[in-house]
Amino acid sequence: MIVKVALCGICVCIINVLLRQYNKSFVIFAELIFVGAVVSLIMNDAADGVRRLTDLFTLSTSQSKIIVCLLKGAVICIVTKLACDVSYESGNIIVGDIIELAGRIILLVISLPFIESVVKTAVAFAS
Known about the structure:
Shape: elongated
Number of strands: 0
Helix content: over 70%
Radius of gyration: 18 Å
Structural class: mainly alpha
Order of helices and strands: HHHHH
């Protein structure tokens, strides 16, 4: 997911550099289209996140889920940072901010199994 967002962001940065040469007002339209595309891509993951939150206390987790969660989180952080740096270097601060926000939301959704494990451990110790 974050790879799609990052690639779209880099493409928008390239398009913005080309558009600035001819008409600076078109840059805003390209960024608005990018924001709409990112929101539509994230909506599926956000729905999955809400579903996971509702099932937080009923799912069982294992150690392998936590390890996979940590590895996915590390990859998401690296890809997000790379795409943000490219966007910031090309002068597209808005695109970089949207990529960073998308990375944070996706990281939160990915980390839900770990949060589930922590909550279950806390409930087990409390009872």
